[in-house]
Amino acid sequence: MIRSEHLNKVYRMGKIEVPALRDVSLEIEEGKFLAIVGPSGSGKSTLLNMLGCLDKPTSGAVFIDGVNTASLSENELAEIRREKIGFIFQQFNLIHSLNALENVSLPMFFAGVGRDERMKRAEELLAKVGLRERMYHKPSELSGGQQQRVAIARALSNNPEIIIGDEPTGNVDSDAGEAIMGILEGLNRSEGRTVIVVTHDTEIAAHAPRVIRMKDGRLHEE
Amino acid sequence: MKDIFLLAYRDIKERKARTSLTLLGIAVGIAAVIALMSVGYGFEQSVTGELVEMADLIFVMPGKASLGGDYIELGSFNERDLNDVERIGDVKEAAAMTSGMEEVEYRGEKTVVDITGIDTRDIGAIFGDVVKTEEGRDLRDNDHKACLIGHSIANDYFDEEIEVNDRINIGGSKFRVVGVLEKQGGFRSGVDSAIYVTSRDAKGVLGNDDISQITVRVRNIEEAEGIAEEIEERLDENHKLDDFTTAMTMGSAIEQLKTIFTLLQAVLVAIASISLIVASIGIMNTMLMSVMERTHEVGIMKAIGAKNRNVLSLFLLESGMVSVVGGVCGCILGVLGANVISIGIGAAFGEGIPAIVRPEVLLGGVVVAVIVGVMSGIYPARKASKMSPVEAVRYE
């Protein structure tokens, strides 16, 4: 379960303080599918970064499986990201010098999984997202939709409980977007993973049973 | 472990041109150090090697002398001194020499040359197995107005070459050349520019038979230092003067030379090290640029679970790999460079210096390259590892 309590995040731009999150309290139960929507600058990505342990709040707390991540060290946060969370980014964020198979196996490498096991699992995951034929291709040789599917396979490599997508369909055409949402829905429904997706697209948000709206750093449940 | 090497290798491969230039920087630095050290060792060996051949010799001179320093002549030795030296245990043989500068004329050309008078029975003691006649023969006891000339006297001192049986005029007397000595060079170059006559003739030409040098050969090289001290004590006592005698063993000369060479090596290496410092700045620059360019990539790696030390070791490994390859290339270049310098010196000065490449120097070269590479990589790697994942992943 993920829970945030009175979460505040303030960015300092020189002498000016810009509040990005204001007193956000939220609870996401295990195995749920949540969409966070809101206009650009509303704080939805900031919230996602806090929930995904990429960033620390200025005040408040984020609990993942009962552990307050706001008090953890950088390396402990890295461990949680590695073991419990899979990220999918709008820009895919694959490593260009590595092929699809190597990109998918990278989180397992950081987790200390042996090479053979890593490669076997990476291959399985790529097959699962329909890219077995493309596993030796580099990101530059893949379409946007294919790259995002590699990113999904990578997000799943350490078998995380939580999948976090920051505008996962933002850089692909609508067909590919639907396919990606289909995969995410499947991960939620058939595998019981918690999926949190940030989007500004209401159609994409419609895939999620629960939608919350962000505006000016505040939360509005729908 | 293999994987992180592969990952680092991929990253290096992505930046071929820049990596090659960085690598070249290290290679040149290491090559400069290795080449200079190898030529330095070669130079040292070619000089001290000659001396080792003469390790059983003690040169006894009436005066204070130091290698590379001044020589103050304080007088000359006499027969009693020679006899005293010969009586010292472990002295195999002792040869007295009389010498002085005298005008020599050959086919109308005149020049002043070192004339050395020797007892023909002492030729073995003085020349040993090293100095041999190239043409003609050695001096004999019954030779009268005959001389043995050094290689330079025969070939360089006069417009026309002097040959065996030619006649030269020494101090107003005609002498027949009975032999020409082989070229010596280096530490024995004095032999090349000397004319040897019998001690009887030397007395006639130089006007005295004062002993200006005693050459001693010892039975046991290890005893040479002790014998030299004893010679100094006895002869100082004979002449009632402290420091009247200098007895120089080749061992002490070798030690002194080695000290000089060590200093010389240190200076050369210090100069060559400048290029290593420049190379290390090059690596740091390359790695900093690489870290900056890959900020986004570092962000991704951290987002998917890389710890600070994963990122740190990846970047350190990259700079380490570049420097190992640079070091190995530097060793190869250094060996080639040392040989080129050696051949160049041979061609320019006629006397070659061997390039002596010691394995420990090569190993040291690679180790230094790795240390330089890793040290220069630490700052950029730390910078990369400390990046905030959320900021780095946003960086374009």
- Class computed from helices, strands and strand pairing of chain B: alpha+beta
Tell me the number of structural domains of chain A.
1
What is the tally of beta strands of chain B?
11
Radius of gyration of chain B: 32 Å
Query: What Rg of chain A do the Cα atoms give?
Result: 17 Å
Strand order, sheet with most strands of chain B: 3-4-9-6-8-7
Number of strands of chain A: 10
Q: Biggest sheet of chain B: strands, sense, closure?
A: 6 strands, mixed, barrel
**Proportion of strand residues of chain B:** 15-25%
Tell me what the structure shows.
The complex is a heterodimer of chains A (222) and B (396). Chain A has one domain (30-57, 71-221): 3-Layer(aba) Sandwich (Rossmann fold), CATH 3.40.50.300. Chain A is built from seven helices and ten strands. Chain A has helices at residues 44-51, 74-84, 100-110, 115-128, 144-155, 174-189, 202-205; strands at 2-13, 16-28, 33-37, 59-64, 67-68, 85-88, 162-166, 194-199, 210-215, 218-221. The longest helix of chain A is centred in the last third of the chain and has 16 residues, at 174-189. Chain A starts with a strand and ends with a strand. With 396 residues, chain B is α+β, with helices and mostly antiparallel strands. Chain B folds into two domains: 2-51 and 255-394, no CATH class; 76-243, no CATH class. Chain B has 13 helices and eleven strands. Chain B has a six-stranded mixed β-barrel with strand order 3-4-9-6-8-7. In chain B, a hairpin with a 5-residue loop joins strand 1 and strand 2 (71-73). In chain B, helix 2 packs antiparallel against helix 12 (359-385), helix 3 packs antiparallel against helix 8 (224-238) and helix 9 (250-293) packs across helix 10 (295-303). The relative contact order of chain B is 0.19. The interface between A and B is medium-sized, with 26 and 26 residues.
